[in-house]
C-alpha cells in the first residue's frame, strides 16, 4: 500500500530469576538506608504494538497518524530470603505497599472499608458507622498496566505549514493521594470532608476510617488510594517554513519557526493535582527509606509543568 499502513505487534513473556530490588533496612539495625536484596523470581508479560497510517498523501497535503501502546502484567512468582523460599511480604511505604508472592511488585495493600452508612440520618458519617476489614488486602498495582500514545501530523501548502499533536494515556493502576490524606488527618481547612456536611458520604467515610477508627492500628488509607488513569494532551505544535527570501536575510538557505505547547490538559478521575507524579522521585533516599521505582505516593508534589516554547531554525 505504498508504505501508507504499517503494523508491528509484539508479545513478550519474561521471567527474571534472582531479581534484585532495594528494600528498607529495619531501623533496629542502625543503618539509615535501604539495601539491595535478591527478591526471587519475577514474571512480566504483555503486548507492545505500533500502527502507522498515512490517510492522505498528495503533493500539497499529507496527514500521518501513529498509534503505539503496551500492556504489562507483573507478578512476583517466588521470594527468597537468605537462600530459602519465603512467603512473607516485603512491606514499605508506611505499610501501604508490598512485594507479595502472587501479586504485582509494589502493589497497594490496605485494610478495606467494607461498608458505611448514615445510620442515624444526620448526614454525617461517624466512627461507629464505618466497618473496616481486619487485614490488609490487595487493592491495585502502583505501576501502569496499560499505556497508549496517539501522534498525528498534518502538512499543508506543499510542506509550508505542519500542525502536530500528541495524546498520552496511562491506566490500570492506583496512586496514594497522601497530600489529601495529610490535610484530612491534620484537621486542615483544605479537607472539605472535615467541615462540610454536603460532602458525599463516601468521602466522609474515607476520612473517618483514616482519622477516627479505633484501635489506631485499624486505621486505613483505603479511601485515599485512588484510580490514577489519565489522558494528557501532551503536545500541540505549529511549524511554518518561511519563504527562501526571508531565510536569505539571515544568510541561510532555509528557515522555520515552531510554536509548541506541552502538557496542556489532563483528563482523569484522580482528585490530586496530577496523577502522573511521584513525590518520592526515583532512587532518592530520605527518612531511613530507600526510594526506588516501586515506592509511589503523591505528597505535596508539583504537577507536570505546562509550558510553551517558540523555536526558530536556520539552515546553512
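-> sequence recovered:
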Amino acid at each position: 500500500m505504498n508504505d501508507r499502513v504499517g503494523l508491528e505487534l509484539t508479545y513478550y513473556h519474561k521471567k527474571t530469576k534472582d531479581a534484585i530490588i532495594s528494600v528498607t533496612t529495619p531501623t533496629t539495625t542502625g543503618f539509615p538506608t535501604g539495601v539491595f536484596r535478591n527478591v526471587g523470581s519475577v514474571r512480566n508479560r504483555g503486548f507492545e504494538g505500533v500502527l502507522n497510517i498515512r490517510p492522505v498523501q498528495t503533493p500539497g497535503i499529507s496527514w500521518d497518524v501513529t498509534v503505539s501502546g503496551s500492556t504489562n502484567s507483573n507478578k512476583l512468582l517466588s521470594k527468597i530470603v537468605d537462600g530459602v523460599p519465603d512467603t512473607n511480604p516485603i512491606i514499605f511505604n508506611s505499610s501501604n505497599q508490598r512485594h507479595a508472592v502472587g501479586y504485582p511488585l509494589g502493589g497497594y495493600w490496605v485494610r478495606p472499608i467494607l461498608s458505611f452508612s448514615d445510620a442515624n440520618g444526620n448526614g454525617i458519617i461517624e466512627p461507629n458507622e464505618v466497618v473496616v476489614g481486619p487485614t490488609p488486602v490487595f487493592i491495585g498495582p502502583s505501576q501502569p498496566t496499560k499505556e497508549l500514545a496517539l501522534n498525528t501530523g498534518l502538512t499543508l501548502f506543499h510542506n509550508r505549514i505542519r500542525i502536530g499533536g500528541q495524546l498520552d494515556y496511562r491506566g490500570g493502576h492506583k496512586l496514594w493521594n497522601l497530600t489529601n490524606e495529610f490535610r484530612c488527618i491534620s484537621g486542615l481547612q483544605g479537607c472539605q470532608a472535615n467541615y462540610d456536611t454536603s460532602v458525599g458520604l463516601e468521602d466522609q467515610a474515607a476520612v473517618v476510617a483514616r482519622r477516627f477508627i479505633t484501635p489506631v492500628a485499624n486505621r486505613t488509607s483505603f479511601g485515599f488510594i485512588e484510580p490514577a488513569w489519565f489522558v494528557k494532551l501532551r503536545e500541540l505544535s505549529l511549524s511554518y517554513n518561511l519563504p527562501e527570501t526571508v531565510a536569505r536575510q539571515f544568510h541561510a538557505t532555509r528557515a522555520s519557526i515552531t510554536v509548541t505547547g506541552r502538557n496542556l490538559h489532563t483528563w482523569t478521575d484522580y482528585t490530586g493535582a496530577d496523577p502522573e507524579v511521584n513525590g518520592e522521585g526515583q532512587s532518592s533516599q530520605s527518612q531511613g527509606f530507600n526510594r526506588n521505582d516501586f515506592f509511589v505516593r503523591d505528597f505535596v508534589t508539583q504537577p507536570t509543568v505546562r509550558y510553551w516554547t517558540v523555536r526558530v531554525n536556520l539552515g546553512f
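The first strand starts at residue 5 and ends at 23.
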